[in-house]
Amino acid sequence: MAGILDFVARFGSEEACIARLAELRWPGGYVCPKCGCGTAWRLSARPRIYECAGCHHQESVTAGTIFHRTRTALPKWFLAAYLMGRDKRGVSAKFLERELGVSYPTAWTMAHKLRHGLSEDPARPIGGFLEADETFIGGRGDGASPGRSLASPDKSLVVAVVEKVPAPKNKKGKKAHAVLRQHGFYAGNARLAVLPAASGAELGAFLKANVEAKSHLLTDGFKGYQGRDAALGDHLKHTPVIQGAGANAGEFFPIIHTIFSNIKAWLIGTHHGVSAKHLPRYLREWSYRFNRRNLSEGLDGYLIRRAMECATITYDQLKAGSVPDGAVRTRRFPVRDAIPALA
After folding, report:
1. Of 293, 270, 301, 315, whose CA–CA distance to 116 is shortest?
2. 21: number of CA atoms within 13 Å, CB side?
3. What pLDDT, on a 0 to 100 scale, did the predictor assign at position 171?
4. I need a labelling partner for 115 at 20 to 30 A (CA). Which of 121, 176, 223, 253 fits?
């Protein structure tokens, strides 16, 4: 596996980064969007600009992407992607501020722009045998928002669904890991979302958008999954499990409760807590990394590819948290989806 020294040697200059972004923008070679000409030259005074040899149309290699009009050097963007993608715990904006030598607002913007580009393809839902449940993040200690109440502005309802994959056996016919021996399953892919309420309509819409039809869903006895608004029976097989005491939740749903524990530990340990309006973006990063946890090269290649594929977003939009989760994939450029590392 190539390390940080190799990465910096490859992408430590503006020239190398521009060349890489041009490969991603025009994988088959430059094509003018105005006249279709396949020949262009770069402006020496503005090296990110390509000018068509036919009609003289000028186009920046970063136009229309997350890097649009950035004044930060591209090698710093690439290194930020590397640092975020190679550590399974992710990195905070404060860490990027120190390592990249930029201001905190710049580091925060870079991290959130890279994070913004991570979203699962809605055409690829998860399926099979699954667990689904909800949890609350934030709002601890606020007496005005007990239980399932969302009266506190800092309290968010997070729903998740995860595939239960049968654990493989070793040559002796036994489960390979202690946890797997105990439960017989391990986690496959997962989907997460922040919902405004734990109603049948909201839960049902989330599951129908993320789970293949005819899958088998296992939940607790919460009525939100069973009501007419959820209508899960029209889409998948649903088996509610009555837990009894809440302490039994981990026994009935070991995978999804482990996921919730890991998410909360990550938000506190790496980021020292996040605000409710930015939580969906952090969950998108966590989910994207979790679903690709077996990649040998990390997520840095994906982050750069998504940055070129994702629509432009401004600092003000990021700060307001106003861009919905689903509004990130534009497919403007023919960026390949399944290549895990920069090549």
Report:
1. 315
2. 31
3. 54
4. 253
